[in-house]
# Entry
Amino acid sequence: MLSKLSTFLLRLWGWTIKGRYPTELPKVMLVVIPHTSNWDFPVGILTRSAIRADIKFIGKDSLFRPPFGWLFKWLGGYPVNRDKSSNFVQTMVDIYNKEPYFHTVISPEGTRSRVDKLKTGFYYIAKGGHAAIVLCKFDWGHREVVFGEPFYPTDDKEADFRRIDEYFKGVQGRNPEKGYLYKS
# Structure
């Protein structure tokens, strides 16, 4: 029922979902780009419900403080301390290696502001946690959520990142001036 309601709301807002999310895989790192607006969050929550997937999300720890922290945890959030000394990557690798089924979503831009380079932690988490990477576009220009084919990180990081950059080329965020790689 909730899945149908979420699909209805997405359609009401003019959004469609393309591609298929691999719920059958035991471990997935879902990489969503672009993240330029707080409106990306409700689109993501509705999409997760519409496709009936158990996907956790990563958020800065300040989101999980009162008065709304309980809500973000209830929605599947994991708080992250963005201080470099917190060893976030190893913590996430340990979670992936401990859990038999774990899917999480991350935006490697790391912020809603303009960036010229993606953070690479997601790549090392997927590699160390033996998780497939699934690329996902939140294309506000076409109002499409587009899932790519899963792939596993290889020993050629540069080739993997060329693949990632190529996939997201031309995608438009809600605030295009803040996005990564929007130019075709």
Residues 61 and 114 are 21 Å apart (CA to CA). Strands lie at 16-18, 27-33, 56-60, 77-80, 102-106, 132-139, 144-147.
